[in-house]
Amino acid sequence: MLNAEQQQVLNFLRSSPATWFSAREVSRRAGSRKQAEEEPRWAANCLRYLFDMKLVERDSQAHYRIFTPESEKPKEP
Questions:
Q1: What is the C-alpha separation between 32 and 11, in angstroms, rounded?
Q2: pTM for this prediction
Q3: Do the domain assignments include residue 27?
């Protein structure tokens, strides 16, 4: 079961499924301005949880995007 913040992050990532976002950018854009000012990296824990649940994927630079079945397929040469 996802809490409100985790759902907020997922909804934001679903808005641009092909785009990779840093935790800071997700924090800034997924929540309210007040939330981002009080805790600039509030989404980081949500993203780690969502990654562990395999709802989002992470690249080598710790950027996140929504998990899609297409991202699982190996790229053809």
A1: 14
A2: 0.83
A3: yes
